[in-house]
Every structure is written in C-alpha cells, then in structure tokens.
Amino acid sequence: MKQITQQLSQIISDYAEKLMGISENDLAAKPDPLKWSRKEILGHLIDSAQSNIRRFVVAQYEEAPFIIYNQDKWVAISDYQNYPTTDLISLWILLNKHICIILGNTSEESLLRMCKTNKDIPHTIKWLAEDYIRHLLHHLHQVCNLEPVPYT
Fold first, then answer.
1. Does this model's pTM top 0.90?
2. What residue spans define the domains of the chain?
3. Which one of 19, 60, 124, 152 counts the least CB within 10 Å of its CB?
4. Assigned CATH topology for domain 2-143
5. C-alpha 70: how far from chain center
6. How distant is the alpha carbon of residue 9 from its chain centre?
7. Per residue of the chain (152 residues), what is the pLDDT tens digit?
8. CA distance 6 to 100
9. Smallest Cα–Cα separation from 129: which of 55, 60, 67, 66?
10. Collapsing DSSP states into helix, strand and coil, what is residue 8?
C-alpha cells in the first residue's frame, strides 16, 4: 500500500498546480448542456474521494459493506458548477491527503477485506485503492486537457 500512497501523494503534488493554472472560464465551460464541465468533473473526483474514504474505512470493520455512489445526483446536488474554484481545488487536495493517511494506516490484512460497490462483484480495499488511482488519473487528464488516460 505504500506504493499507492506515494503515488497518490505525487498525483496531489503534480496536479494541484496544474488545476490552479486553469482559468475559471475554461473550467466552467460546458462542452454540451448535458455534459459536465471540467469543474463538475473535478467535483465528481471529490465525490469519488468521499465515497472511497467511506469504503476504505467501513470495509475494515463491517463485513463486505454495500457502498454505492450515484455520480450524476451527487454532482447535481453539490452544484459544483457554481462552487468557488479555489475551495473546490483545496477540498480535492485535502480529501486525497486524507486518503493517503487512511491507506497508510491500513494493515496488509485489512487490504484484503471486501466492499460491494455499483459493480456486480465485491472488491478488496486494495483493488479499490488501485482502481481509485486509475479513475483519478483518467479524469485529471480530462480536466487538465492532457493526453487521455483510458479507464474501464
């Protein structure tokens, strides 16, 4: 897990500055009325961090908890489009630093504990942490307008 926490710490460091360098107009621009703006995608990453924090914690003391996330409803209810950008970036940074602490304190034994999500099969905390990094990079590249990173 040390590798995941180091990777996440590096992602925070590498992308925080990139995020702060994007203009408000570019972040808020919607490519289509039915699609998320880059600001809303960043909000989605905040929601993902919150959902995964809950998974990483609860799965350590409950047997295979079922923790789902309705991304469209969370983004709409949170109104990220009108959220102050600096607060949004700060929240993203702090939540990911918190994930580093949680995962850094997770025992090797606990990494094998299971959690059920929106997917059909339960996954270990370790798998969820690795998937979180893949998901994070996929969307950060969208927000920062970088080379696409595939995510399935």
1. yes
2. 2-143
3. 152
4. Four Helix Bundle (Hemerythrin (Met), subunit A) (1.20.120)
5. 14
6. 13
7. 899 999 999 999 999 999 999 999 999 999 999 999 999 999 999 999 999 999 999 999 999 999 999 999 999 999 999 999 999 999 999 999 999 999 999 999 999 999 999 877 999 999 999 999 999 999 999 999 999 999 97
8. 8
9. 55
10. helix
